[in-house]
Amino acid sequence: MTEKQQDVIFVGNKPPMSYVLAIITAFSSGTLKAVTLKARGQAITTAVDVAEIARSRFMKDLKVASIVIGTVEMPPREGETKSRMVSTIEIALAKP
Description:
- By secondary structure, the chain is of the alpha+beta class.
- It has one domain: Translation Initiation Factor IF3 (2-Layer Sandwich).
- It is built from two helices and four strands; from the N terminus they run E-H-E-H-E-E.
- It has a four-stranded mixed sheet with strand order 1-2-4-3, covered by helices on one side.
- Strand 1, helix 1 and strand 2 form a beta-alpha-beta unit.
- The longest helix is centred in the middle third of the chain and has 16 residues.
- The two termini are 15 Å apart.
């Protein structure tokens, strides 16, 4: 897939509806066929909620194309000595 056909939305601490709006906006431009939600750590639950809200309430034809889970090593926080492992998820949403 080319860069023009895919958009990435990084999910963080904002309310879920702001990310749902970002998905709707991305698809309404007309050029995109897929949007990927990326989240890590505590934001994973928000990313799953966003995908389900967008799919069930706003864009009925939206499909979950793929879900990729993984782990990344984060550098130690200030005052800590060990790096930590953080879970990640990528949810690809596609329109037919």
